[in-house]
Amino acid sequence: MKPSRPETTAPADADARRAVAPVICYPPETLPAPDMVRYRAALAEARVADTTLVSPRDAACFRVRAGQMFRIVSVEGPQVGDLNLWNAHDLSERFYSGKTRALHGTHLSTGDRLWSSFPSLRPMATVIADSLDWYGFDSFGGSVHDVIGTRCDPYTGRLLSGGDYHHCCHSNLTRALATETGLPLTEAEAHVHDVLNVFMCTGFSRDTGQYFMKASPVRPGDRLAFMAEIDLLGALSACPGGDCGSAHSNDTATCFPLRVDVLDPAPGSMDGWQPPAPNAYDRSHGAD
Ligand SMILES: [Zn+2]
């Protein structure tokens, strides 16, 4: 945090320096645009091909082929979900939360893409429907579906409270990936990464810049839907924080399940569509 009483005296032109207007780092207009007309048509008459119910304080994996869709649905009560995505054929290509944040902002909604790690750096999924898009940003600066948090984990819990809690999202995702792939737990853990916080309401406090959470506005029936741009292995954890309105990393919050539906697109709607190619940078990095 910034000191409330700085040790350094401000220069004479401090106000002028602060008054410099910001520029957007990555204007999204220059990104390849998703074909939202096609994607909406695919979703309009989509059929449910598979359904996975994620138990509270646990995680489950699901698989989606490129050109299929998936949606995360609130059932029974307000609940936050932590989402990991991998290339189904190569776990080293995984969701890159930080770059997605740099490209689309702190919180995602319809039309935003979930980008993959280097060197592929391509869209893994595109948000195609968001029933919480009405929320916008509240007066605290909070919003839903963030890419600013990481995932609750037992290591940070240990630092802060001294105890061991085994049902943080990090551990839930680790167990689910190990079960799905047959990898040993420690190998699976290395593939777990920073998440998309589905339905979670978060922000940075305006005065101190601290990460905050507040009770999610999600209600049963709310959904966040995605087009799978490549073949995906996904894992979703139903966070032990429940609606994340008070505590996490323990068993005190009321938790609910989450449902993941995999959807086949409307017949013919994805004909001729191709998954995005990996990034074209030649990886020579200026070396001789
Ligand atoms: Zn969590």
TrEMBL record:
Residues 54-233 form the DUF1989 domain. It comes from the Bacteria. Coiled coil: none annotated. Residues 267-288 are annotated as: Disordered. InterPro entries: DUF1989. Pfam families: DUF1989. PANTHER family: RE64534P (PTHR31527). This is DUF1989 domain-containing protein. It comes from Meridianimarinicoccus roseus.
